[in-house]
Amino acid sequence: MPAETAPAQTPASLGYRWPAEWERQASVWLSWPRNPATWPDKFEPVPAEFAQFVRTIARYEPVNILAGGSEILAQAKSLVGDLPNVTIHDIATNDAWCRDHGPIFLSGPKGTQPALVDWEYNAWGGKYPPFDKDNLVPKIIGKLQGRKVFTPGIILEGGAIEGNGEGLLITTESCLLNPNRNPHLSREQVERYLADYLAIKKVLWLTGGEMAGDDTDGHIDQIARFINPRTIVVCVCDDPTDDNYGPTQQNLVELQNLTDLEGRPFEVVRLPLPKPLFVDDQRLPAGYGNFLIVNDAVIVPQFGDPADATAIGILQDLMPKHQVVGSPSLDLVWGLGSFHCLSQQEPLAHL
């Protein structure tokens, strides 16, 4: 970052950091599905499947849902308003992808004000306007909760970054260095923002490519995820005839060659992919890497595929202190995302 634009006080300089998803959470934030264009000709079953996802989260921790406008508010209340662990807010959004338009919540030392980072949002490089209401969400939540709001002034989606809570972050060149996000920034400048606002010490870049059907230019939460500080699960396709074969095999090799802050390789564990799913000619980015970690549980998308149970078993073996559960996502994934894309965890303010 050029010296003249560096903020006087960054979250990192004040002792804030971005916790790992498996650290204790205060709640999960969601935005109620409201845009039929996101699920063309298949929107009708989406709210009910989304509601099942809400009910699964609410078994483990509080849920905050943005559901602005009388019609959306009424639908959300009718489907999940009976749950004592759910709070529904009359706050409007353009779409449902809270991972990307929501804030990144930070934890800080005791005595610091609860804080969040308000990145700019442009719907994955301007692909799906309008996104004005989505872009306002972090500021609104900051005001609602009385949080300190840090505003870097650059575009970044939550699904594009994956952290281990100890200063490491995985991302993809195809997304973070895409000229449709921040064409004025170099790799080094992007890394400086991540260091200043998320307390990242080392950025691990993947170049292998994105999942077939993904419209985010390669969000990491469709590709690879930390499940503890030194273990990464990666979605891998073993069918040479599948479009996902080359990119996922390259991602696997690149992850096996990455090292942590001490120069040690990671434990890299393969996750299967379900058989290819299509709606008409549209390939869907269906994968088990889009799971959500909540307090004491992991919620894994299910697609009616034999690999559903295999993915749950792999994650359960890796995370024995969590209950790994499945929830249907066959309708939701037609929107080109799943549980992680739809949610944003709020860690405890002080860990």
TrEMBL record:
Alphabetized InterPro entries for the sequence: Peptidyl-Arg-deiminase_porph
GO MF term (any one): protein-arginine deiminase activity
Position of the signal peptide: none
GO BP terms, alphabetized: putrescine biosynthetic process
Residues that span the membrane, as ranges: none
Keyword Hydrolase appears in the UniProt entry: yes
UniProt keyword list: Hydrolase
Enzyme Commission number, as recorded: 3.5.3.12
Superkingdom to which the source organism belongs: Bacteria
Pfam family, one: PAD_porph
Stated name of the protein: Agmatine deiminase
Organism: Anatilimnocola aggregata
